[in-house]
Write a structure and sequence with these properties.
Length: 78
């Protein structure tokens, strides 16, 4: 696997990325997560959550653009 980078992922998107469970997201959030995946990982990915138990506030997450609570995640191309 090739390292793709570390991304600031909003906590509201973790279940969608980790488990493909979009059930708690509205249409816009679902589209944001899917667009992130499509743009960066067309052929699949593996994710390693860093600091999953220590979220922080950021004004520049890699999914969406609003001030949000996020965690860092290392992504690898599958």
């Amino acid at each position: 696997m090739k390292f793709a980078g570390t991304f600031a992922i909003p906590t509201w998107a973790v279940n969608a990325i980790e488990y493909w469970d979009f059930s708690g997201l509205d249409d816009l959030d679902t589209e944001l997560v899917q667009s992130f995946i499509d743009a960066n990982f067309k052929h699949g990915f593996v994710v390693d959550w860093r600091g999953i138990d220590e979220p922080y506030t950021t004004s520049c997450p890699d999914i969406g653009s609003l001030l949000t609570e996020a965690v860092d995640a290392d992504f690898y191309h599958a």
